[in-house]
Amino acid sequence: MNQEKLFHKNPIVSNIYTADPAPMVHGDTLYLYTTHDEDELINDFYTMFDWRCFSTKDMVNWTDHGRIFSLDDISWADDRAWAPQCIARNGKFYLYCPVHKIDGGMAIAVGVSDKPEGPYTDIGHPLVDEGDWNDIDPTVFIDDDGQAYLYFGNPELRYVKLNEDMVSYEGEVEKIPMTVESFGKGSHETGTTYGEGPWFYKRNNLYYMVFAAFAEGEGRNEHLAYSTSSSPTGPWVYGGVLMEEGPCFTNHPGICDFKGHSYLFYHTDELPGGSLFHRSVCAAEFRYNEDGSIAVVDKCDGVEKI
Asked: What mean pLDDT comes out for the span 153-174?
């Protein structure tokens, strides 16, 4: 008789290298969108061509939906299928993905699907394209009043207010003031800890911005940190370290509540053959303090069945 599986050991995915986890809860299912680090590197750099999706109803039994969107689906992009996030609205699913624009800089693509597991179809043009390298790592959230926000950026944090169609926006790209009060004193280009990989959400009327961060000092790897605000556009107040830096140069947060439990998704380099270019998605359960603050979350062996 098969013994019921009650625990899933990290990393969540062990047959391929995955990074940049982006959870989305829809109905009774948690969908996890990831990037995919190819086994063979090109020019000893991040070699990433597609996005993957995995789903679970209990955190231990996972379904692999395979490749759901790729550079082959985006005629105007040629490289760097980097950190995505997905959101549902009006019966559609929108997958926001940073890519390298042909003869340009980084830009944000949008794939649209009728199903959370895809496949996704590109809208045919960049959603955000400022002609620089800041337009990476989109994070999307729809507030209670129906206004949707798309934050992104390295080294600056920027945002746009999305229209209800989720594939356009009015006005200009807004820049968040990169202050020590908002993001802590660190070693990244703005003089703060904020590096990249923002994750934006709201819980109990408090807005959270979780991000990959660089502490003060030379040669630091990324840790995870967070800031909070009473408004979706700031001002932000630095909350502190969320996860200490590890042996992998990068990290990327994804946070959600699922069936009464709170989870932080992150990545490491702990699979065999792992490196800063061969990463692996993990999960850790955590709890909020009564005031909404979050204590440091430890990297862990895995998660229990719910």
From this structure: 97
